[in-house]
Specification:
It is built from no helices and eleven strands. It is mainly β and 115 residues long.
Length: 115
Amino acid sequence: QVQLVESGGGLVQPGGALTLSCVSSGIIFRQYAMAWYRQAPGKQREWVATITAGGRTNYGDSVKGRFTISRDNDKKTAYLQMTSLKPEDTAVYYCNARFSETGYWGQGTQVTVSS
């Protein structure tokens, strides 16, 4: 019943930009903190960015200054704007929603940065 669906992934050249979306259903979206994680082949899952229910944002060092997380409570959607993309950003990107010991994951969307 609870569902997070990521979209917007694809192939982009180094230095390019891409925006990911995460549409939620089955939760009271406005009370959940939203986050993006990513997992590259052979690597552990890495935290990318978080936006709290109150709108405060935090970023991992590897993406700080290049990525922007945002949310639209009316659309029940979280976004990740990615710019200045590097090959090392290549990964499956996952959306996460968390509130009071309860958390949910999306299925992931592939981002490939390559020339």
